[in-house]
Amino acid sequence: MKYINLSTYTLIFILFGAFSAFGQKCELAIRGKILHQENNDPIEGAYIWVVESATGAVSDANGNFIVKELCQGNYNLTIQYLGHKEIRDTISLTSNNFNKTYRLEEESFELGGVEIHGHKLAVQTTTAVTALYGDDLLQARGESLGESLKRISGVTTFSTGNSISKPVIHGMHSNRIMILNNGIRLEGQQWGAEHAPEIDPFVADEITVIKGAETVRFGPEAMGGVILVNPAPLPTKKDPKTNFYFTGGSNGRMGNISISHANGSDKIKGLGYQVQASAKRAGNIQSPDYYQGNTGLSELNFSGSVGYSSQKLGIEGYYSYFNTTLGILRDSHTGNLDDLINIIENGRPFSDPGFTYDIINPKQVVSHHLAKIKSHYHLSDKWKLNFQYGFQANNRQEFDKRRGDLNTKPSLDLELFTNTLDLFLDHSLKNEWSGSFGINAIQQANSNIPGTGVTPLIPNYDMLNLGFYAIEKYSKGPLEIEGGLRFDTRTVQTARFVDSELQQADLSYNNFSAFIGGFYQISPKVTFNSNLGTAWRPPNVNELFSEGLHHGAAAVEIGDADLNSEKSLKWVNELEYDGGRTQLQLTAYANHISDYIYLNPTGDTYVSLRGTFNVYEYLQANAFFYGFDFSGSYVFTERLSGYAKGSIIRAKNTDADNYFPFIPSDRMDWGLSYQFGSLSNSKTNKFTLSNMLVAKQKREPDFDLAPAPDGYALFNISYQKQFELGKNKLNLGLQVQNLLNTSYKEYMNRFRYFTDDMGRNFLIKLNYQL
Fold first, then answer.
1. How far is CA 440 from CA 218, 219, 389, 434, 437, in A?
2. DSSP conformational letter for 202
3. How deeply is 624 buried, as exposed, middle or buried, from its count of CB atoms within 10 A (0-12, 13-18, 19+)?
4. In Å, how far from its chain's centre is CA 22?
5. DSSP string covering 711-745, please?
């Protein structure tokens, strides 16, 4: 009887438990984030398996995952991603707020002939980031760096004619924008408005724009933003890849070729190399009604790298050479005051020289050498030591229209040597924390080469900058919080002879900078990030001591030795929506700058034997920049899609309650694309019609040499198609820029006083991948 009763009670208890379990609502969830142990990048496509519930999830593009409908209890998780060590974890799930970050460690092995290995040096930031790669970068081949980046909302150009342009991010350019060429800060004579970056865009496999103040990470010259020009990673095994590019343009009869080859060693695992070379030639640019005299260019560039990578050690050497000759519009150099007034009133050159490839004075001849060596060593699976050294030699010669033998001598001949050193320690702990601690140094020596027969525009100088920084990041599920602190100290020594009198100056600058930022994935489709950062920039030597004719700019520039350092506080917010058919991105920012330095037209002119030139002076005032960028796309059908992007910026002199010169006007670019075949087809076969709308700049300074030009609308068309030739690929691009041959002037072009911008241009672009 007792046995029967015990069995009965046991059965009742089991049934009751079963019914209770059946009736229990299992609404708990396991959330987490999967990151690379190597560089703290999110991992998309990692597989997470919950053993007890026989359910799983796959991490998204931000590394986040969620496994839903779980009851309270203990669970065993298995996390796997190809080429990385498996993670197994046991967790106790008692509430719905479980959230954990996992970091997968890379392992090197061969699987079916495919080797999974590599080390990526990533830049982690919570501020707004946009990249140009793939088909978008392919469409930009053959263009300068500045022109290529105009495809990104919030980025415009500050140009001198049609062949010299430099990128502008949220109204900032030149020494406020840092460009990293394969990890090395590009150091040339970037202070001049007509000094284009000495870099060949063909070296890039991806070009990334960081729109926030990044002085903590990179130093004072990054107060306006950062541009990363990254080549493709070096191969680690034998896998030859060759790319050939050809670009031809009707306007200027331009031709541009580039070839690159990369391969790895079959005998030494982890050893690889890459070489690349390009050449470019163009003649006089044509506006809709006339040719622009002496606006041709020529370029010859080369780069090469070799590297070795193992489980713990990585080392790479890199060298690049950039050489260009640029013609300067002859009509920008006028003979007397009347000629200057007349050409500004006329709005275009009085002569039409026709087409020629010849480049005569005035012109620029610029060469730039860059060499670097970098290495990293994994002290453990959590700590990595990084070292990087770079050397750069930059020579800039500017030739003016002069008489006799002087016409063969440069009027400006500058030689700049730069040494940079970076030493930093990365950590990625098993928990949610990661970060970096480091020191970087930059040493420069800039010299005027004797024999120009002209008093140097800027003095010789030596500069030394030391920076110490720490950055820490907390990542847990959909939330990332990041903060950093930096201290810089800079010394500058200058010297030059003026009327046989030696003038010297010893200057020193010190400053702290800091930032805090956050990223939050509101839902699988919506993300938000915010970054608040202080930044600073000491005045450059040209802003302090310019005194004379700047030949390439056809202007007299006057510096101010009493200028203070710029200090800013910038707040950047970005909201992004990815709904499959609909993609939207909105960036809003506000930037308060104390002692903002700007080049202002005085209204005066300078008359010399070489001509008559406008006079500009460097001034300083408190400034407030604010605005927003937007971009979006929508898929209407399987074949038809559209996009729109644009930017609005306001920049006000809060001291004088007026506006600064050379601030981009409002603009929007929109277009429609038709895919011949399904959009899901991996082979491109697409036609695009686009329209660029640019408003008139109505917020002008109190004085300018001429009123701001009218707004304009440009239509462009393009066609892209990919052919498969056996194992190889041929990409064909046909483009027509300024389809209607519209006459227009861009406010951000310093030669708008003298000429229109470029007219219609037919382009053919070929890329053959072996």
1. 8, 9, 10, 20, 10
2. G
3. middle
4. 56
5. PEEEEEEEEEEEEEETTEEEEEEEEEESTT-----
In angstroms, the CA 653 to CA 632 distance is: 32
CATH tag, 129-769: 2.40.170.20
Strands (E), 499-639: 501-521, 526-537, 547-550, 555-558, 566-578, 582-608, 611-635
**How deeply is 516 buried, as exposed, middle or buried, from its count of CB atoms within 10 A (0-12, 13-18, 19+)?**
middle
Quickly tell me which residue has 């709308």 as its tokens.
Answer: 693
What is the C-alpha separation between 470 and 476, in angstroms, rounded?
A: 20
Alpha-carbon distance values, 527 to 474, 669, 685 (Å):
17, 24, 32
The pLDDT, as a whole number, for residue 8 is: 45
| Residues near 533 by beta carbon (within 8 Å), at least 6 away in sequence | 127, 212, 213, 214, 215, 216, 513, 514, 515, 516, 517, 569, 570
Tokens of 452: 């120009």
Domain residue spans of the chain? 24-107, 129-769
Tokens standing for residue 648: 């609005």
**Rounded to 5, what percent of the chain is helix, strand, coil?**
10, 55, 35
- Given the structure tokens 């951000």, which residue do they identify? 748
* Spacing of C-alpha 337 from chain mean position: 41
Residue 737 forms beta bridges with which residues?
761
DSSP class per residue in 352-368: ---------SSEEEEEE
List, run by run, the mean pLDDT of 10-residue segments along the chain (770 residues): 43 42 64 76 85 83 82 87 85 73 69 37 66 88 90 91 90 91 92 88 91 87 91 90 96 97 92 96 96 95 95 93 94 73 86 93 95 94 92 94 80 95 88 88 95 86 96 87 95 87 91 93 88 93 86 78 94 91 95 93 75 84 96 93 96 93 94 81 84 95 87 97 91 96 95 94 96
pTM reported for the whole predicted model: 0.86
Please list, in sequence order, all residues whose beta carbon lies within 8 angstroms of the beta carbon of residue 606, skipping any fewer than 6 positions away: 549, 556, 612, 613, 614, 615
Q: How confident is the model at residue 19, as a pLDDT? A: 41
Report the distance separating Cα 673 and Cα 637, nearest Å.
Answer: 11
The CA distance from 591 to 581, in Å, is 34
Strand-pairing partners, residue 301, are: 278, 322
- List all residues 6 or more positions away from 354 whose beta carbon is below 8 Å from its beta carbon: 284, 291
Sign, CA dihedral 135-136-137-140, equals: positive
**Exposure string (b/e) for 692-723, b if CB count within 10 Å is 16 or more?**
bebeebeebbeebbeebbebbebebebbbebe
Radius of gyration of the chain (CA): 29
Which of 494, 416, 408, 417 is closest to 452 using CA atoms? 408
Rounded-to-integer distance, Cα 635 and Cα 642, Å: 7
Cβ-contact 570, 213 below 8 angstroms: yes
pLDDT of res. 678: 63
What is the CATH class of 24-107? mainly beta
Question: 11 vs 1, 22, 628, CA distance in Å?
Answer: 15, 16, 69
